[in-house]
UniProtKB/TrEMBL annotation:
Record-stated family: Belongs to the major facilitator superfamily. Monocarboxylate porter (TC 2.A.1.13) family.
Source superkingdom: Eukaryota
Lineage: Eukaryota, Fungi, Dikarya, Basidiomycota, Agaricomycotina
Membrane-spanning segments: 56-77, 97-119, 126-147, 153-173, 185-205, 217-237, 263-284, 296-316, 328-347, 353-376, 388-410, 422-444
SUPFAM superfamilies the UniProt entry points to: MFS general substrate transporter
Organism the protein comes from: Polyporus arcularius HHB13444
Descriptive protein name: MFS general substrate transporter
Composition bias type Basic and acidic residues, residue spans: 9-20
Keywords: Membrane, Transmembrane, Transmembrane helix
């Protein structure tokens, strides 16, 4: 009898150990809990940032002036191209002259790949002054270029000026992450609004000064204006958080960001959106002249686009700080798709062309300000510059080939070829919008939770009584 009791006690102990082992190996799954995000995808630990105050807004002022002087001059290139074609470089083709402007945009974004990594390591103490010097020096060299010497303009206004912009643009945006989090979209919107303002002011200054003082001195006056603006930038732009102090070119591009599906989808969307982004800027005036718009109005379409860009880079940031970046970015891209396919494509009159220029400028500026804002929200702070630079590497390729592709589609200036150009631009914008919306779906906690519920339901059915043995039954069998 004692042996039987001992045997029963031993059997109970074996069952208890088996239950404990199963509990350890097969933990309970809560269907309400979303699946964990990989460690390299998780959001960084929140740390204190001022999100305002005198010092923070002073940095915004300096960054705005830096983009006013650098990227603002890119938006002015149409005025330079007109002068180069008619006066300074009459022997050069229109496509080769436009390549100078495309090279500036390419170097702006491509250089941002490496400028972002340098910023992560050393901040702005060297890059902002060096970029300012190169920018002013390049314009001075442009003022000394000789008649019909295209290589001089290419080296000074294309290569040298583009390198100066690359050193200024990325750090001026990345430094805002040191000072803002909750109001980051507003800060970036105010900063990128500076480049749109430059695209309005500088063409008017050049148009007024060239007939009075000539092209060389007009460019020098612009260079002196840039010097004043960039001096303020050098004195006000500064970092706040600790820097790594070392740099490795192997980490200039942070490929780990591609493990995050939100980052990967946003980068692909950025490529498509910026592939088509500058096509209206380059060809709207040509289209206006083709449709017989008076020159006095057609010549100001680019200024209208840039003028409307100012509020479109600031207001979306204010709304994005409250409702989320993608909740503003995706609707803005959708509206641009509708404007291109629904307004520009059927436009035949001066009024409809002006309306498209104004509305496209009003909405498309959100692309420039909200892209770095979204990358900041999904990237760890210590590698934000490198990841933003990686996105700009992709964008640089899109901007370099985008407008030449549009030129290849517009072999003949007629309505048929313009329709092909406009449809191409609209379809690319629409495709980028859909992929960008996909990044929002992937990053939605609510959708992940819903997906987890559906996925966990079959698993719960399998573990329900009658479909599989209970843990105690399995332990007893063992």
């Amino acid at each position: 009898m004692a042996d039987q009791d001992t045997l029963q006690d031993q059997e109970k102990r074996d069952l208890a150990k088996a239950d404990e082992a199963l509990t350890t190996v097969r933990p309970t799954v809560d269907p309400e809990e979303p699946p964990p995000i990989p460690a390299d995808v998780e959001e960084p630990q929140l740390e204190y940032v001022p999100d305002g105050g005198k010092e923070a807004w002073t940095v915004v002022l300096g960054s705005s002036l830096a983009l006013f002087a650098s990227a603002g001059m890119i938006n002015t290139y149409g005025t330079f191209q007109s002068y180069y074609e008619t006066t300074l470089l009459p022997s050069s083709s229109s496509s080769s002259i436009s390549l100078i402007g495309s090279l500036q945009i390419f170097l702006l974004y491509f250089g941002g790949t490496f400028a972002g990594r340098i910023f992560d390591a050393y901040g702005t103490s060297v890059m902002i002054p060096l970029g300012s010097f190169i920018l002013v020096f390049a314009l001075m060299m442009v003022s000394l270029t000789q008649y019909d010497q295209a290589y001089q303009v290419f080296l000074s206004h294309g290569v040298l000026f583009g390198l100066g912009i690359a050193l200024l643009f990325n750090p001026s945006l990345a430094v805002l992450g040191h000072w803002f989090r909750r109001r980051r979209a507003l800060a970036i919107g105010l900063t990128t609004g500076g480049s749109a303002s430059g695209g309005v002011v500088f063409p008017i200054i050049l148009e007024q000064l060239i007939p009075i003082v000539g092209f060389p001195w007009a460019v020098r006056i612009i260079a002196f204006i840039l010097m004043a603006c960039l001096t303020v930038s050098c004195l006000t732009i500064r970092t706040r958080l600790p820097l790594s102090g070392h740099i490795s070119w192997r980490t200039a591009v942070d490929f780990r960001g591609w493990k995050d599906p939100r980052y990967a989808l946003a980068t692909i969307a950025a490529f498509l959106l910026f592939y088509a982004f500058f096509i209206p800027y380059f060809y709207i005036q040509i289209y206006a002249n083709f449709r017989g718009m008076p020159p006095g109005i057609a010549n100001y379409l680019l200024a209208i686009l840039n003028a409307m860009n100012v509020p479109s880079r600031i207001l979306p940031g204010i709304v994005a700080d409250r409702y989320g970046t993608l909740n503003v970015f995706v609707p803005a891209a959708t509206i641009c798709s509708i404007l291109i396919l629904g307004l520009w494509l059927p436009s035949r009159s001066s009024g409809s062309i002006i309306a498209f220029a104004a509305l496209y400028g009003l909405v498309s500026g959100a692309f420039v300000s909200l892209l770095p804002t979204y990358i900041a929200t999904i990237s760890p702070r210590e590698v934000y510059g490198a990841r933003l630079g990686s996105v700009y590497l992709v964008v640089s390729v899109a901007t370099l080939v985008g407008t030449p592709t549009g030129g290849a589609l517009l072999k003949v200036v007629d309505q048929k070829h313009f329709n092909g150009l406009i449809i191409f631009s609209g379809v690319l914008t629409l495709a980028g919008t859909i992929i960008l919306a996909g990044a929002g779906v992937v990053g939605s906690k609510r959708l992940r939770r819903l997906f987890t519920r559906r996925k966990s339901s079959p698993e719960m059915e399998k573990s329900s009584p009658g479909s599989a043995p209970e843990p105690t039954q399995v332990a007893h069998a063992v």
